Amino acid sequence: MKTTKHGELVYNHDDLCDLVMQGHDVVNVPHLQVDTSVDLETAAAILTDIPKFVAYNELAEQMSTEQFDHRNQTQWFMPDEYKQLDIAEYVLSQCSTQAELQRCGQELLMYQERGLFDLLRYLKYLVDTMTQHRLIWGVGRGSSVASYVLYKLGVHRIDSLHYDLDPAEFLR
Length: 172
Fold this sequence. Notes:
Layout: E1 2-3, E2 9-10, H1 13-21, E3 33-34, H2 40-46, E4 54-55, H3 58-62, H4 65-73, H5 80-83, H6 87-93, H7 98-113, H8 117-132, H9 148-153
């Protein structure tokens, strides 16, 4: 297995066999990159019924970071129920006071201006998935704790409204 300069994992024939032998479900993986230098016919014979491989492309290595980010910001792998979620409505429904509504409304406008609603939907999916599988994540770190919206989504546990943290510190 190798890693691209962008941190994506690219599997070779042996890696695919190892995943199957370890009992991993490679059939339902939405985005599986396979090095095209491997014999895909042999790999496909071993791993039957895989809907599609995303072939590793040398051009991906030549992409700028901005191109790579743009490509990935348009490809969110999450269930349709999260893709269709009205994230603003969901976040606002989590508010119980006028101050919370005002702060979330202000931040949601900032997220919307930056085209980050898909990111918020994905974070909701991620938090739900981690909770469902009883995974533990940190209390919060860095400037992200300044976002009250992320607090309401459960991404971190720092009440930025209580501590009067400026959301502009996170959404610069």
